[in-house]
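Quick sanity check, P27 family phage terminase small subunit:
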Amino acid sequence: MAKDGTNRGGARVGAGRKSKSLHDKLEAGQEATVIDLPTPTDLEGHVMPPVKKYLKAKQKNGLEFDAADIFKETWEWLVERGCEKLVNTQLIEQYAVSVSRWIQCEECISKFGFLARHPTTGNAIASPYVSMSRDYMKQSSQLWFQIFQVVKENNATTYQGSTPQDDVMERLLRSRKGMN
């Protein structure tokens, strides 16, 4: 409570001790709660939700939009870890679109360079693709951290290996060579 009687301040976002993953809690001998989903009796198989139309749309430059492939890779990665029911499908879609847009911006930077011409003065300015690329990279990283946090908190074993986020750079490099 401030001197003037208003209720301001409080804990800052992200302040405090970070929560431990399920694996770390079990390893330390602490009690841990797990989201307990009902197990089907004899059903096996995972139905991937249908890929939305906008994730497969042709782009203005005539190339395919990579979002559908990224959505599928991320979904399959979640299925392997048993967390596909815990992550909202819209979050995966947002992640796929953000990564695809980042790849498009990087391709434009490679094609047009880091500089652009100012529309009225004709002077050299920084390419708008650079800032857009930075924004999409930040957005896709934040979305990936949200997805990975669910996996981290709900897996009893530590995860080591490649993730769809690791494959983003590989996809970018393949698209530059024309292999994608």
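Posting the structure with no commentary besides this: The mean pLDDT is 81.
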